[in-house]
Amino acid sequence: MPELDDATLDFLLVRAGVSPTYEQRAGLKAAYAHVAMMAERVRKPRGRMAEPVLTYGFAEEDLR
Amino acid sequence: MSDIPTIAEAARLIAAKKLSPVELTHACLDRVRELNGELHAFVLVTEERALADARAAEAAVMAGKAVGPLCGVPIGLKDIVDTKGITTTCHSRILRDNVPDTDATCAVKLAGAGSVLMGKTATHEFADGGPSFDLPWPPARNPWDTAHFTAGSSSGTGAGVAAGLILGGIGTDTGGSIRGPAALCGIAGIKPTYGLVSRAGVAPAAFTLDHIGPMAWTAEDCALMLQALAGPDPRDPASASRPIPDYTAQLGTGIKGMRIGVIRHFHEVDHEVSAATQRGIDGAIATFRGLGAEVSEVSLSPLAEWHACGTLISLTERAAAYDEWARTRLGDFGARVQQRLLLGAMVSGVDYVQAVRRRRELRAELKAAMAALDVVLTAAQPSEAPKIDEVPEWDIGQKPSFTMPFNVAGYPAMSICSGFGEGGLPVAIQLVGKPFQEATVFRVADAFEKATAFRDRRPALLSALVAAQ
């Protein structure tokens, strides 16, 4: 995973509306590589019909 | 009875009028005065409230009123739990003067059960990050060796129970914040099924991963506390409307024939644990077999899969919850929380939803794996408590957590002490049940505690204090 470039980092931070310090920017660039790896882990070939989990509670089918 | 009673022991004695709630509370307050300066378990001690609660409990007992097992029992509330008229700081300078005008539901329920509120316990800032030294209050220290970490974020409750400052307390758990401190402080703590205990009035960390639960010296004590805490609450949109069983009914009935699955690859391959932790797990398996349980091996997706799913959800939901302050008051958070909020704000919506879709698959996987089992077992923490000044800065690339999978799944999961390792520091196992089957988890945990001697040992600093009194 290539490190985030400055332009992309700027875009993400502007979109988020947050203003890190210079030191925090450096840390974010390194840490974001791990976020990208995690995102890759959860991106599976599951097709468009696969629903998210029902997060607010278990369905009866979960309890059988 | 040991010098410091368990909740169950205290309840029996109080009901029999052989133990005064006021005297019990004074004993705990004395220990707070002696030890809190070293342990930092409390950010606020509510002595007047504690004594008022204790006197009310004593009056109820002496009047012959029917009282429950928490009547007159000193407890602590993690300082992200709202308490009406009592400062609730979330261990953050952002809320250092915050005085809520309502109680959290869990605070109401524990008060209604007659417990004695001793104060607000230390946490990591907004139940995140830690141990941090750039906050208005220092982090809690481990009573087994105060140079060591408690784990977090329910760090003050863990330290307070282990040191006998309180007999039980409230923790919250988004990725392991009940089970981590329970493990490193050598006590018991359960993250109940998602929705079983109301989150209303408790500061959020990540809405769909947050759980509220009890921490106490034994599994039986956790069962007694959960009995008071569980139940539906219209103030919590995720609250489950389920029948509440008697959580102590199965205790002492043995575990012969119960089926325990060991997720061996979690702690032997995916994240190899310390030698002492492994000995604790092996010893527990031998104990369970000796008690007549059937122990088998079970396999799930690698720990890193669960960790990635939970971390993406946690980062993003936390960033959403604290978005306004991250934009306007970022510098008022401690450094660790700032870093996490910034990173969470950078996760894309698509990545978040993919994580929530992955969550469904992982939950289905756990359900299938447990179909023919009563509980599963793995590590709760990778090792004994590290030194507090050697805990690394937060590293998102760190090895995956043993506790996060069961926040992702929402299944009940409990940490109990399984021995002692380097320097006499505790180690633990984690037991996981099916949704709303907390009673089964308690049954297994209680059988283990009663078959072993690990509940007979308290931190040395406490033994010295008791001997001096």
Would you mind describing this structure in some detail?
The complex is a heterodimer of chains A (64) and B (469). Chain A is mostly helical. Chain A has one domain (1-47). Chain A contains 3 helices and no strands. The longest helix of chain A has 21 residues, at 22-42. Chain A is elongated. The model of chain A has no long low-confidence stretch (mean pLDDT 90). Chain B is of the alpha/beta class and 469 residues long. Chain B has 16 helices and 11 strands. In chain B, helix 10 (303-321) packs across helix 13 (349-369). The model of chain B has no long low-confidence stretch (mean pLDDT 96). The A-B interface holds A 12-13, 16-20, 24, 27-28, 31-32, 34-35, 37-39, 41-44, 46, 50-58, 62-63 and B 193-195, 207-208, 237-238, 240, 304-305, 307-309, 311-312, 315, 319, 323, 326-327, 330, 338-339, 341-343, 345-348, 351, 353-361, 363, 367, 396-397, 410, 434-436.
What is the terminal-to-terminal distance of chain B?
Answer: 17 Å
The assigned structural class of chain B equals alpha/beta
Contiguous uncertain segments of 5+ residues of chain A:
none
Structural class of chain A: mainly alpha
The number of distinct helices of chain A, counting runs of at least 4 residues, comes to 3
Text of the CATH class of chain B? Alpha Beta
Largest sheet of chain B: 11 strands, mixed
**Low-confidence parts of chain B:** none
Order of helices and strands of chain B: HHEHEHEHEHEEHEHHEHHHHEHEEHH
Average pLDDT of chain B works out at 96
Relative strand content of chain B: 5-15%
- The helix-strand sequence of chain A is HHH
Annotated CATH topology of chain B: Amidase signature (AS) enzymes
Cα-based radius of gyration of chain A, to the nearest Å: 18 Å
Q: What gyration radius of chain B follows from the Cα positions, in whole Å? A: 20 Å
Percentage of residues in helical conformation of chain B: 25-40%
User: In the CATH hierarchy, what is the superfamily of chain B?
Assistant: Amidase signature (AS) domain
Number of domains of chain B: 1
Number of strands of chain A: 0
Which strand order do you get reading across the main beta sheet of chain B?
1-3-2-4-6-5-10-11-9-7-8
CATH architecture designation of chain B: Alpha-Beta Complex
